[in-house]
Design goal:
Blueprint (H helix, E strand, L loop, with lengths): L17 H16 L15 E3 L2 E8 L5 E2 L2 E2 H14 L3 E13 L4 H17 L4 E9 L7 E11 L3 H12 L17 E4 L5 H7 L19 H10 L2 E5 L5 H13 L2 E5 L7 H10 L13 E4 L4 H9 L8 E7 L5 E4 L5 E3 L13
Helix pairs in contact: 2-3, 4-6, 6-9
Length: about 350
Amino acid sequence: MVGKSDVERIKVMHGAGGTMMQKLIKEHILKYLSGSNAEVPLEYLDDSSVFNGIILKSDSYTVKPLFFPGGDIGRLAVAGSVNDILMVGGEPKALALGLIIEEGFRIDMLDRILRSISETSKEANVNVITGDTKVVEKGSIDQLMLNMSGIGLRHKFLDRNLDVVKQYYGDRVYRWILDRNIMPGDKIIINGYIGDHAIALLSVREGLGFQIDVVSDAMPLNRVVNEALRVGGVVAMKDPTRGGLSNLLNEWVDKGGYGIEIYEESIPIRDTVKNACEYLGLDPLMLGNEGKVVMAVVDEMAEDVLKAIRSQPGGENATIIGEVTDKHKYVVMRTVIGGYRVVPPPIGDPVPRIC
């Protein structure tokens, strides 16, 4: 007989990205909820799904603290939802907001968050058009949680982008920007510094006792993605949120069936973030980000896409950090001293509740 103490239970790490979350999704959630006739179904595990040409995304936000250097839960919710629609080649059109508020929450703090949602929505050229509000008993949740859902349509530059891809790949590409599209030779581009968001949050969490001049990178990526698709050649896009860059690249390897090699000296990390990671014993490759996009781009178009990205806010520090290879099926990093090491997927994000 199985006792109550023997029953497996949900842990924080099950929702933190990485292998524990992937296991939960594949063995439990997909077991019951997969099998739709969506064009991009749930079981693809891409950033958004597509049904009858409509892109749908829903995400919940439990970040702690609610306010942090460079943003707050409201900015995070809009940026995160908009970016996930962009990642499959969509153009965000409208948002739905769900508020779950703890009894006793300060009205002035709610106003501040709603103002941030409004401002960030304007920045992303979308509006919140529907939603829901619930108030729960004190102690039921930690102050405030949000759900943000969004819909989008096919991006105006997506077909142009895919036409460029087909010049090199023929028809070996899907109708959308998906993780499984990667091919050997594709260059890996990131639009800027990694680790800022997680370290900014840690700098204001209680008990850590350090000060650092880093702010969250949370921002909608419309302009960066627009320019990349306008130039053409993008085959895959993903934002390195929970689990960071290492989790993202390992997902691409798992879905695409090819290996990825990255170059340590090319990965943009601020010195202050490196120092904080050394102090806290963290790997910057596993830290979550909220204003970053990683793109796989056909080799022949990579420099043109890179130049276009760098012309946009949020893309000034974009760089090529690696490429897809058929020599192995791992994520491998070429170190600054010329050696190589395998970059494994994280078990979970080492900084919980970053979004």
